[in-house]
Amino acid sequence: MPKSVEILCPKCDWKPDGRAWWMCTCGHLWNTFETGGRCPACRKQWEETQCPNDGGGCGAISPHLDWYRGLDDWLIEELEQITILSPA
Ligand SMILES: [Zn+2]
Ligand SMILES: [Zn+2]
After folding, report:
1. Count of domains in the chain?
2. Rounded to an integer, what distance in angstroms lies between the CA atom of residue 38 and that of residue 32?
């Protein structure tokens, strides 16, 4: 990942701390930024990501890609591939 890319909440600038703050509808808890928004348990692709209140965030829901600052084309491609390659 290029150094210019940072992951921050688009609303409050909360920075993910690497902990598993996101719960899928299947009940799995994980760090959504490790998988580009995809649940590793049921493989559901989340297009939107909530800023976790419990982790000190604002609770706002934003498109997953809006969290990446300084995102350039290759990373968008990378994330699209994650989506495309997801087995059904
Ligand atoms: Zn899931
Ligand atoms: Zn936030």
Report:
1. 1
2. 7
CA of 25 to the centre of ligand 2 (A): 21
Distance 48 CA to ligand 2 centre (A): 13
Mean pLDDT, each 10-residue run in order, the chain (88 residues): 79 97 97 96 97 96 92 72 68
Q: Is residue 1 part of a domain?
A: no
Residues near ligand 2 ion, CB 5 Å cutoff: 9, 11-12, 14, 51, 57-58
User: Where in the sequence is the domain holding 23, given as residue range(s)?
Assistant: 6-85
In a domain, 78, yes or no: yes
Number of Cβ within 10 Å of residue 43's Cβ equals 13
The pLDDT, as a whole number, for residue 20 is: 97
